[in-house]
# Entry
Amino acid sequence: MKQIKKPLSNQSGQMVILVMLVLVVALTIGLSLLTRTTENTRQSTNTELSNRAYSAAEAGIEEALRTGLNQVNPVSIGSDGPTQTNFKTTVNFQGNDTNPFIFPNPLSKDETVQLWLFNYNNFRTSSTFPAAQPTSGCNASAGNYFAECSANQNKVTISWGSSDGIPAVTPALEVSLVYLDTLGNFQIEKCAYDPNSLRLNNFLLAGEFDGTICAQSATQSMQTETHTVNSKQFYYRKDLILNPTGKRYLLMRLKLLYNDNNKHEIAVNPNGQTLPAQGQVIESTGNAGDVVRKIRVYQSFPTLPGLFDFVLFNGSTDPLTKN
Amino acid sequence: MKHFIAIARFITCLAVCVLLLSYVKTTFSNTPPTTSYSLDASVTTGSNGWYTSAVPVTLSAVASTNPVQNITHWIDSGAQTVSTSNPTTRTLISQGPHTLRFFATDTASTVETTKSFDYKIDLVAPGGWNTFTPTQSGNNHTFIISVRVTDRTSGLDPATAEFQYSTDGGSTWGHYSTTTSCGSTWNSNGWRATTLTPNSATTSGTITTPAINFCNSNWGNTKFVRLRIKDMAGLLSTKQYALMSPWIQTSGGDIYSKGDIDMITEQGTTATATVISESAVQNNITSSRGWNIKGYSIPSEQYYESYSNKFKQNAVTLPGAFPTVSGVYETNDYALSNVPGGLSTAQNRAIVVFVFGDLFIDTNVQLHQSSSVVWIVSGDIGIRASVTRADGIYISNGAFDSAYNGNGDDQLTINGLIVSNNGITLSRSLKNNDNLSQSSERILFTPSIFTNTALNNLMKINSKLTWKEYITY
# Structure
């Protein structure tokens, strides 16, 4: 029996299809690899540009912290061929408005923050301190000071305590008010409040008043109740009435006691009056190619550390004696 | 017909029964629970209805028809606490007069009429002893003593003000039957009643003794007097003073000591702010505000090293003539023996001096109230005994001595502050009996340091920074 052979041309066509299929698969893989490589390269370039833009923004912040000046025009910090890297900065004073102010960093035990009650900004580069003496009446003229002749009883509300927490580490608050008297002398008066009545430190407790500026009446006593300031929750609150008659209040130092390493925030509400600026906000824009990154930094005005609230500090275990 | 009548009777009976049941339910099942309170046996009762300890109160509700669901309780106008425990305990700790109110609710939401418990708590004996004032009356060893004392919670009990004294340096105590006569009868260990004059605030007053003859004109023999008083809750406070012994005075700033605070006496106002110690011993140093804290630790550090790291980078060598220009300076062991004439009137100066070694202040230093000289010293600081004024901020890793070469018998005034990590020696005692009316060391806090722009600028390191990236393209 004679075998019938298929035509050779038919076999040749199948091979072409197979080769074509292999080529298509190879081309697909190759194109995919090429695309991925290109994408990786592009991402790598973008990442590098992003990093360079961030570094440029940081450089702008450092420069502004050093000089305190705006940089309206881009400041170049280098180029890589056609790619320019530069920054621009703006420096503005924070606040000087009627909004409640929350100190940006929570406080540990014995840490102190300072609230400026005059426009420190106007005097910070001056070698003199042109604080005018107050008169025995209302001091309406200056305008650089908080709550001059306000009809709102010059009330500031201090809120503290980010959590109710364990009573043993509930934060007590010491307030130091610095002012000028009618003779032009600097004076200080202190108030102290403790939400925990078991410590027996004679600080004012919730609901207590002593007839002084610390709490003239029950309505000015410390309150232990949950409330919010700028959407943040606080547990303890104290109204202080800063009567300017015969006094020109300059600043308020606020110190937390007892709270160990449990950090708590402090907020101050000027109750509709203008609170002077407490620091400056620096915004820096870094550019690298077409990548832009922005950093914002808040810098408080410089203040002395809490150690300077003591008139006598004996860090030794030797007794402090007089005999 | 019979059936109809029977059905009518049945319906009538049923209606009456329903009405009766309804009445019974209305009348009896809505009786609310009854709550009563009881005090823990640990509660201590003082005088005049005051409690002198924390007051644990147990509230117990007795069910009537329905079981008790919960007990609600609150103090004054405070937030209500709803407790499902029965009985439930609440510890009352707020000092002063208050009212605890409570009621129970049953499972049918029947609410008991609110009941109340009025209470008064005073946990603190009178304190804030200050303004100790001996006034000479007749011979040089007869004095009228007055001192101010406070009790913020229950107030002072005037009928309990008493005193006794010692004429032999503290060995024996009591009083003569006639306090001006050393020949009258000596009442050993006796206390004598005296007067309390209330001040404008009802919670404080001034105790004043009659003239007391201490029977010894030799001022080498220390004269002691003790005063005591109770508050209205019956808590007793006793205070001892020594006449003619040296004492210190501070104002405006807080005081801290890692070790004991042990003063032989306090005369006038010795401290005006918070007094804090890590130890439990605070003898004769009372804040005029009564703010005394014991057992409280504040860490210290090696200030010379830490402050050097922070802001000594641009320091220049301290010139031979002490500068009047603001700046940061550095030097080795240093003795300040001359100050330029203009230093006392120069305003708004901030002169920060780092001393590697010891510092000696051998001449008077007077500064304008708006200026500061800050000494940051790795070793000791000594003030020469003849110096009477040494304004400045003294911070040392070592010790501080107010009269390093001995025999300091003139009053020293420091407008500034003292920080020491190795002991503070306040060794002066005034001559000519001046201890009676003057402190031997006065350290007066200068609040202008906080507004000294030059000083703040030199210490810029204390600016707080907060970084945040806020927009990313």
